[in-house]
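Give me C-alpha cells for this 672-residue protein.
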Amino acid sequence: MFDKILIANRGEIACRIIKTARRMGIATVAVYSEADAGTLHVELADEAVLIGPPAAAESYLVIEKIVQACKDSGAQAVHPGFGFLAENAGFVEALEAAGIAFIGPATRAIAAMGDKIESKKLAAEAQVSTVPGHMDLIEDAEQALRISREVGYPVMIKASAGGGGKGMRIARDDDEAREGFRSARSEAKSSFADDRVFIEKFIEEPRHIEIQVLADTQGNAVYLGERECSIQRRHQKVIEEAPSPFLDEETRAAMGTQAVALAQAVDYRSAGTVEFIVDLDRNFYFLEMNTRIQVEHPVTEMITGLDLVEWMIRVAAGEKLGFSQDQISLNGWAMEARVYAEDPTRNFMPSIGRLVRYIEPEAGGLENGCSVRVDSGVVEGSEISMFYDPMIAKLVTHGPDRPAAIAAMQAALDGFAIRGIAQNTSFLAAVLAHERFHEGRLTTNFIAEEFPDGFHGGSPAGETLARLLAVAVVLQRVWDAREARISGQLAGRAKTLGDDWVVVTAEDNHPVTLSEAGEGEGVGDAYQVSGAAGDRLVESAWRPGEALFRGRIDGRPATVQVDRRGPWWQLTHGGARLEALVLTARAAELAARMPRKEPPDLSRFLLSPMPGLLVSLAVGAGQEVKAGEELAVVEAMKMENVLRAQRDGVVAKVHAEAGASLAVDQAILEFE
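Here you go.
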C-alpha cells in the first residue's frame, strides 16, 4: 500500500479523496493554483504544493508541474479526481516514466475510452449496443451539415475529448448544425485543448442511465448497479439517484453485463462508468465510458456500502477485489443534488464571489432511517472563482425507499444556507417537489419541458404560505422582545409587545394573532398563532442573527432560512421565498399608502448576465441588428454564452471591448 499520494485536483473531490486516504493511513499532498491558496483542500492535506497561476491551463493542466510536485513531495501515486488530467493518457505515461503510480486505469483504456469516437468503435466490436452516427472526425462546418442530414435531425454534436456537458450541442436543422459545430469545437478547444468533434443521432425522450464498474489488475470486474442521471440542464447533470426508478432487474443485468464486457475488452482496472441512453421501451445504447471517478459516485456508495475511492487506491496498489458480482447488493435509495454557484432566475448564469454565510445541513443519520452526506470543498469565507467549475457542494441523502430519500433531500435543502453569491438550491427544491419527478417520469428533457420559460423562483401558497406566515410573526415577536429588553435597559422602560399583527406580502395583507404558549418540548419557546396562518403551535429557540429557523410547527420538524432586509423578513422554505413585513394593523394601513419607486429602464442596454470574459463582439456602433442576431459571446467558468438581440434596433454605443473582464449587469452595448 502507498504511504503518500498526491491529489491532482481541487475543490470537493480533492477533499473527498483526502478523507478516504486519511482513514486508510495514507499521507496526502495537495496541489493548488494561486487562486486556490488557503482553500479547504489545501488545509486538509498533509502537504501542499503551489503549481502556478489561476488559469487551469497554467496550473492544474500542466503535466510537468504535477510530476515535479510528486518528485518534490515524495508522493508514490497520484489520484486525478475528475476533470483536468483525469482522462489524459499522456499524463499517465509521464507518471509511469517518473516511476509514479496512477490511481486509475492504464493508458490503453484511457486512450480508447476517453476518445468518444474510438470508444464507440470498440463498443460496437464488443457487441455493445451503440447509437447511430458518424464516428470519424469532422473537418469543417460543411461536412458537419452533410453528415447531419445523412444521420437525420435532430443530431448531437459532441467533443471527442469532452465531458461535463462541455463541447456538446443539439442541432435540429442546418442553421443549428452550422452554429453548433462552431460552438462545440471552440468550447472543446478551450476546455480540453482538443477541438475534434463527432455527430450522432439524438434520441428523443431519452433517459441517461449509467453503470458503475470496478475492476482489478487480476482480471476481475463487477458492476455496482446503475445511476439515473436524466435530470440535466445543458447536458450537465443536476440531480442523480440510485437505483433508477425505471429499470427492471432484467434490463439492469443486461446493461451491467455489457458494461463489464466493455471494461474487459480494454483490460480496464479501477473505477469507471459506462453511460447509456435508454428509450421508452428500455432499449439502451452506449454513449461513452468515463475512465475516472464520477461526480455522482456517492449515490452508488450509499446503496452498496463501498468506498469507491478506497477501492481505486487498493486496485492501483495491486490488491484484488474483495467481493464478486453475486455478493453485491443494493440497499435502499440514494439521491444527489449538485449545488452550483449560479442564478437559476437569470438563466442559470454563473455567480462568483465570497461565501459570506455558509451553513451545511446537519450530516449523519436521521430519526426516520435516512441519512445526509455533504461533499464540499468550501467553508464560510471561501471564494467562488471565475476560473473553475461553479460547483459548491454535493448534497446526498439515503433512505429506505425513493420517497424517503426525496423527503430527506428536501429537508436538507431547507437547511443549506448560502449567502454572498447566487446559488441553485431553490431550483433543486422545485425539481424535487414536482409531481412528475415524484412519479419517476424522467427524461433528459425534464427541465426544458417543465420549466420552458426558465425558473423564476417559487412563491409559497396554501399550507406552505400559512406555515411561513406563522414563522414570520414569531420571528418578529422574538425580534421585538430583544428590542424591548434593550429599551428597558437603556431607557428604564420596556417596549409593549402586542399580540395582533398584519403580515404584509406582495400579494395581500394577512391578519395574524400570536400568544405565548410557554416552553416547547425541548426546542425552545412555544407560540400559538391563529388567523391567516391558521391555528398553529410554533416552537423554536431561534434568536436574531441566526440564518436558520429550526423548530417544530404543529409538532412536525421545520427548517426555514431567514434573512433580514431592513424591516422585511425574507423566508425561504421548500424552494419558495416569502418577503414579509410584520406590522401592527395601523402601521399596515399607513404602509399601503406609501408610493412605490419604479425601477430604472435598462431595456436600451445589453448587460452581461454573468461575470466573465467578453470573448467577442459581433456588432459595432451605428450597426443595425435584427432580433435573434448574435451580439456578443461571454465566457465564464469554462462555458461560452452567446448573447443575442431581443428585438430589432441600432447600436448607439459600445461600452466594452473584446477581451474585457465583465461584472454581472455591466453594460456591453447601448441601443438607440
